[in-house]
Design goal:
Helix content is 70%, strand content 2%. It is mostly helical and 456 residues long. It has a two-stranded antiparallel sheet.
C-alpha cells in the first residue's frame, strides 16, 4: 500500500519556463545569497536565552518578501507564479548538494554515531509521536475537529499528503488538516524551527547532540535551519558533530518515515482523537473549515503545478548552487575559494551525480537522498582509500553555507502558497507550530535521556 502512494503523480504539470526566466531566477537567487551572507549572524537576547538569526533565515525572508511584493515591482524583479513554481522545483537539486556535504561529514564520524547507542534509535519515536502529543490537545482545546488528525499525525510533508489523500481524500477534514500543516511548514516551518532550536540551545539544558538529533525532522530545509541554529552556538568541533548527528537522524526519519507514519503514527493519532475529543473538544463549528471562514471560497483549491527540469538543467543547477555555496563560504566564514576549496566542491557535486545516477539506474524505487547520503558516507568512512584527503578537502566548506541556497529557493517559492494558507485560519496554524515543536522537542527529550553522559 505504501509503495502505491507515490506511484502516480496527481499534480498538474506547469508549462515550461523559458531559459530567460530561469536565468532571471538564478540571478535573483545569487543576489539574495550575497545579501544574506553579507548580513551574517545576528543574535537577539530573549530572557535567559537568545535567538540567532542566520544567513539562511535572511535568505528565506528575502526570497519570500520578493515573491509577495512581486506584483508591485518592476518587470526584471517580478517573480511570476511560473517562476515561483520553478524555484520550488530547484529546491531538490539544492537539497542534494547539502545532503552530499552532510553524508561526507557523517562517514568519518560513523564510529561516534554508532557509539551513541540507543539514543539515535529511540529518538525517532519522539519525531513520529511528538507531533500528536504536542499538537492534538491544543487543536481540541481550540475547537478544531477532525482536521486535527491530518495536522498532527506528522510534520505534513509530501508523503503525508499522499497518505491522507489516499485514505480520506484532500477535500475531507483530515485532508484540510494535513494541507494546513504542509502550507504552514512551507511558509513558516524553517523560520519557526530555527528560532525554537536556537532559543532552546541557548538555555544550555540539552546536550547539543540530542538537539541535533531532534533537528532531523524529515524535512531538508527545516533540518538545515534547526541544525544551523544549534551549530551556530557551539565550538567548531561540536558544530561539526551537530551537523553529523542531524544528518544521521534526518536520514533515518526520511527512509522509514512513510511506513512509520502510515502504520503507527496515523492509527495512534486516530485512536487518541477518539479518546481525547470528548474530554477536550469544544462544541463549536469546525474552526478550520475554509467554507466557514469564507462562504465564497471555492470547494476545490487548485493543486500546485509541478515544473519539470531536465537532466542537463539539473546538472547546471548543481554547478551554480555549488558556486553560491563557495560565495557564502567566503563571505561568512572567510574561506577564499582557492583550488583546494573548489576541488572540495567538485567532490560534493560528484557525490550528487553518482547518487543521482544510482537513483535513476535502480528505477527511482528509493529516494535520491538515500543514495547520495550513502555514497558520501562511503567516501569518508575510515578505511576507505583517500578518505582522509577527501574529508580534508570537503571539510573546508561549511555546511551552513550550503544551506543558504536551499532556503533561498524555498523563499522564492512560498508566495504562491500564501492565498491558500490564509484561508486555513489562525487556529490550525497554531496547531501546526505545536506539531513542529513536538517533533523537535520529543526527539530531543528522548535522545537526551539515552545520551551518556546526559550533559557534556
Amino acid at each position: 500500500m505504501a509503495g502505491e502512494l507515490f506511484a502516480t503523480n496527481t499534480r498538474p504539470v506547469a508549462p515550461p519556463v523559458s531559459g530567460g526566466g530561469k536565468l532571471t531566477l538564478f540571478l535573483l537567487a545569487l543576489v539574495i545569497v550575497v545579501i544574506a551572507e553579507a548580513i551574517g549572524n545576528v543574535s537577539i537576547p530573549v530572557g535567559a536565552g537568545k535567538i540567532v538569526l542566520l544567513p539562511l533565515l535572511w535568505a528565506l525572508l528575502l526570497g519570500g518578501a520578493l515573491g509577495l511584493m512581486s506584483p508591485r515591482l518592476p518587470g526584471p524583479l517580478r517573480l511570476s507564479t511560473a517562476l515561483q513554481n520553478a524555484a520550488g522545483a530547484y529546491l531538490q537539486p539544492a537539497l542534494l548538494i547539502f545532503i552530499a556535504k552532510l553524508g561526507l561529514l557523517v562517514g568519518g564520524s560513523l564510529p561516534k554515531i554508532l557509539a551513541s547507542g540507543w539514543a539515535l534509535a529511540f529518538q525517532e519515536f519522539g519525531h513520529f509521536f511528538g507531533t500528536m502529543v504536542f499538537g492534538l490537545p491544543v487543536a481540541l482545546l481550540l475547537g478544531i475537529k477532525r482536521e486535527a488528525i491530518g495536522a498532527t499525525f506528522s510534520v505534513g510533508r509530501e508523503p503525508s499528503l499522499a497518505i491522507i489523500g489516499e485514505r480520506y481524500g484532500m477535500d475531507s477534514p483530515e485532508g484540510r488538516g494535513v494541507l494546513a500543516e504542509y502550507l504552514t511548514g512551507t511558509v513558516f516551518g524553517a523560520v519557526f524551527i530555527a528560532l525554537l532550536a536556537g532559543l532552546i540551545t541557548s538555555l544550555g539544558i540539552f546536550n547539543p547532540l540530542a538537539l541535533a538529533m531532534g533537528a532531523g525532522v524529515g524535512s531538508g530545509s527545516m533540518m538545515a535551519a534547526a541544525s544551523g541554529a544549534i551549530a551556530a552556538q557551539q565550538t567548531p568541533e561540536v558544530a561539526k558533530d551537530v551537523a553529523t548527528f542531524a544528518a544521521a537522524s534526518n536520514l533515518v526519519t526520511t527512509t522509514i518515515g512513510t511506513y512509520f507514519t502510515l502504520f503507527l503514527s496515523l492509527p495512534f493519532t486516530i485512536w487518541a482523537y477518539g479518546k481525547l475529543e470528548p474530554i477536550l473538544g469544544r462544541n463549536r463549528p469546525d474552526a478550520a473549515r475554509p467554507a466557514a471562514a469564507d462562504p465564497q471560497a471555492p470547494a476545490h483549491q487548485p493543486a500546485h503545478e509541478e515544473v519539470r527540469i531536465g537532466l542537463g538543467e539539473t546538472v547546471l543547477a548543481w554547478i551554480l548552487i555549488g558556486a553560491y555555496g563557495l560565495i557564502g563560504n567566503w563571505l561568512t566564514y572567510g574561506i577564499v575559494p582557492d583550488a583546494s576549496v573548489v576541488a572540495g566542491m567538485a567532490i560534493i557535486i560528484g557525490t550528487v551525480l553518482a547518487g543521482w545516477g544510482l537513483y535513476l539506474l535502480l528505477g527511482r524505487r528509493l529516494p535520491a537522498v538515500l543514495w547520495v547520503s550513502i555514497i558520501g558516507m562511503a567516501l569518508t568512512y575510515p578505511g576507505t582509500p583517500y578518505a582522509a584527503e577527501i574529508a580534508a578537502l570537503t571539510g573546508k566548506l561549511n555546511f551552513l553555507a550550503l544551506a543558504t541556497p536551499i532556503l533561498t529557493f524555498a523563499g522564492l517559492s512560498v508566495a504562491k502558497d500564501v492565498p491558500a494558507f490564509r484561508r486555513l485560519g489562525w487556529r490550525i496554524v497554531v496547531v501546526s507550530f505545536m506539531a513542529n515543536a513536538g517533533t523537535f522537542l520529543g526527539a530531543a527529550l528522548i535522545a537526551q535521556f539515552f545520551m551518556h553522559p546526559p550533559l557534556g
